[in-house]
Automatic annotation (TrEMBL):
This is Regulatory protein LuxR. Residues 300-357 form the HTH luxR-type domain. GO terms for biological process: regulation of DNA-templated transcription. The lineage of its organism: Bacteria, Pseudomonadati, Pseudomonadota, Alphaproteobacteria, Sphingomonadales. One of its GO terms (molecular function) is DNA binding. It comes from Novosphingobium subterraneum.
Length: 364
């Protein structure tokens, strides 16, 4: 692989961790070293902690051995004072001024125990308290510093490594924010779905999936919304396009099965951007009970689990009589539980209890 092809492969590995093994194998061959590893490190007090380690094939096989010393606080390189002093650096065990003579001896012995020789690396600061490094180790027993040819190649890599590091860091931040957003979306009982103008589903939360599975007039087939009636398809597409307002309804076989849709957001059409124009929809149906966690109700209102379970079923639309039959208990027992729940919640009527529970959970 030529140097230019190797640089291109490094950019191609951004966002695809599995491809880094091939890239690092190629760099390792190019430099004639035993190990090539890409790491993202963060500061933690006086230490540097590797939060990401992408390795060549051999280093992956030896990861347990290497992590026992080379990637641990025992390694002098993982002190905070060894992080890059400038924005970028090309450094080595023999040149790093933060390492003392005793540090270098500890490195020599510790690396030998891992089957590794002397190390040298590229370093790049990305955000405060975080940097990346592309570190190489010679074969065991080889204590040579970087050669002029090594330096030439590392200087060729450095500007590209800097850009790749920024892309990796940016993507890690985006993925973290996306993970938090998706966790929130899945935790809410509001059914949410993102689709395009052709009703292709790009994302939905657990509540939307459960609602679609429960209703007879709508299905998801091959990653698309499909409605039993062609006029329903036209109405939903019109709502997504905004030609007939932001809301629409799709009747079911029973009155309680009607599906209500509201467009919460439409992406602005922009031909300069990749991707399809999407709409975020909220879905609901009066016949589908909201998902209420009885343990959460018990915690919020100081109820016993028996009282909270009754309350959750009342919020879902069940009567006290039906609940008693459902649980196999006397109706009088269920009414005593309701009376106790009303007193603890500070309300006098069943309707007020249901309203207070719904309002509290919605605000949370």
């Amino acid at each position: 692989m030529s140097d230019n092809d190797l640089v291109a492969a490094m950019y191609g590995a951004v966002g695809e961790d599995a491809r880094w093994t091939e890239v690092l194998d190629a760099i390792k061959v190019r430099l004639g070293v035993a190990s090539a590893v890409f790491q993202r490190l963060v500061t933690d007090g006086d230490d540097l902690v590797p939060v990401t380690s992408l390795r060549d094939t051999w280093s992956t096989q030896e990861a347990e051995t290497h992590d026992a010393w080379a990637n641990s606080p025992l390694n002098p390189r993982f002190r905070r004072d060894t992080e890059p002093r400038g924005q970028d650096e090309i450094e080595s065990d023999l040149r790093c001024i933060a390492l003392t003579a005793s540090d270098r001896e500890a490195l020599r012995r510790g690396l030998a125990g891992c089957g590794l020789g002397a190390g040298f690396w590229l370093g790049c600061k990305t955000v405060p308290g975080e940097h990346t490094t592309l570190i190489f180790h010679r074969h065991a027993g080889d204590g040579r510093d970087m050669t002029e040819e090594d330096l030439r190649f590392l200087n060729l890599l450095l500007p590209h490594f800097r850009q790749v590091s920024r892309l990796v860091t940016s993507m890690a931040g985006y993925e973290a924010r996306l993970s938090v957003a998706e966790a929130f979306m899945d935790s809410t009982s509001l059914a949410l779905l993102a689709c395009d103008a052709d009703l292709g589903i790009h994302w939905m939360n657990a509540a939307a999936e459960a609602l679609i599975d429960a209703l007879p007039q709508v299905r998801q087939i091959g990653g698309r919304l499909q409605f039993g009636a062609s006029e329903a398809t036209g109405v939903v597409r019109a709502a997504i396009a905004g030609t007939l307002g932001d809301t629409c309804r799709v009747p079911g076989e029973q009155p309680a099965e009607v599906l209500h849709l509201r467009v919460l957001r439409r992406d602005a059409a922009d031909k300069r951007k990749w991707g399809r124009k999407l709409a975020l929809l909220a879905l609901c149906s009066p016949g589908t009970a909201p998902r209420i966690d009885a343990s959460e109700v018990a915690s919020l209102f100081g109820l016993t689990m028996a009282e909270a379970t009754l309350t959750a079923h009342l919020v879902g639309g069940m009567t006290v009589k039906d609940y008693a039959a459902h649980r196999g208990i006397a109706e009088g027992t269920a009414r005593m539980q309701l009376k106790s729940a009303l007193a603890k919640a500070g309300v006098g009527r069943q309707a007020d209890l249901v309203r207070q529970v719904c309002q509290s959970l919605a605000r949370l």
